[in-house]
Write a structure and sequence with these properties.
The protein is mainly α. It is built from 4 helices and 2 strands; from the N terminus they run αααββα. α2 crosses α3.
Amino acid sequence: MSFKALLKRWESRSESPLTDSEYAVRLPRDDAARLLALAELYHLPVEEVITDLLHTALDGIVEAMPYEPGTKVIREDDFGDPVYEDRGPMPRFLELARAKRAELDGRTPRG
């Protein structure tokens, strides 16, 4: 989700399912002031602003993760060109994220 889409979401107020877990963080004063200002501007609880900003930032991190081509061809693209395995952090990140999601859902992750 882009920051523009996030602002639109705040204006339309759609909801997403949340975990039972809470995470406490300490913020620099300037960041806390900006969070409080956003919450007041959009008439939202500050916790919702934090949740949405973190979600958007995590999407941005995933988008920014570098693709590092390996030596193994895993498939061909639509033009018949080889697509190489990713040796970068993305495959491991996705594996860890799936396992953590399974833990949060209370089930055993599939390997």
